[in-house]
């Protein structure tokens, strides 16, 4: 979906968000999120990496967030907090929504090596979850069968790739301004 690198205070940070469609046959979707930090100075250490996996189980209507093979968060696709959106002006992609508030608790559970990498990981994960919920809402009643629904959501995610990249940049900037919170 996207890969981004940034240099800050002698370190290079990278974040990669990949949509895995290998689970579509099972009526599921998955994301791999990899955040890496490496020193750019003379004393270069081994790069440090944090990986998250998001599994979207459409039959259970849940998103499982995993780190080191442990579930660190479970997010219902149909949680009440996701239903009443407070949208901004039409066409404005960065409106603050109730979803943002619902993510706050989830976002704090994401591990990070330092605040910059934490912002990148949290922003990528919340962007993936938010767009997945939007796509699920859009297609859940129009498509029959979990395989067809997974396929429709995967297509929706691909079509909204640029929007996701913009939301990621916005959320990362907001996180930086808040000091890595």
Give structural notes.
The protein is of the alpha+beta class and about 180 residues long. It is about 35% helix and about 30% strand. The protein has four helices and six strands. It has a six-stranded antiparallel beta sheet with strand order 1-2-3-4-5-6. β4 and β5 form a beta hairpin. α1 packs across α2, α2 packs across α3 (about 145-160) and α2 runs antiparallel to α4. The longest helix is centred in the last third of the chain and has 25 residues, at about 115-140. The chain is elongated. Mean pLDDT is about 80; it is low at about 85-100.
What is the CA-atom radius of gyration, in angstroms?
A: 16 Å
Q: Proportion of β residues?
A: 25-35%
Q: How many DSSP helices? A: 4
State the helical fraction: 25-40%
Q: Report the principal-axis shape.
A: elongated
Count of β-strands: 6
Major β-sheet annotation:
6 strands, antiparallel
Q: Averaging pLDDT over every residue, what do you get?
A: 81
By secondary-structure content and strand pairing, the structural class works out as: alpha+beta
Strand order of the largest sheet: 1-2-3-4-5-6
Low-confidence stretches: 83-101
Distance N to C terminus = 24 Å
SSE series: EEEEEEHHHH
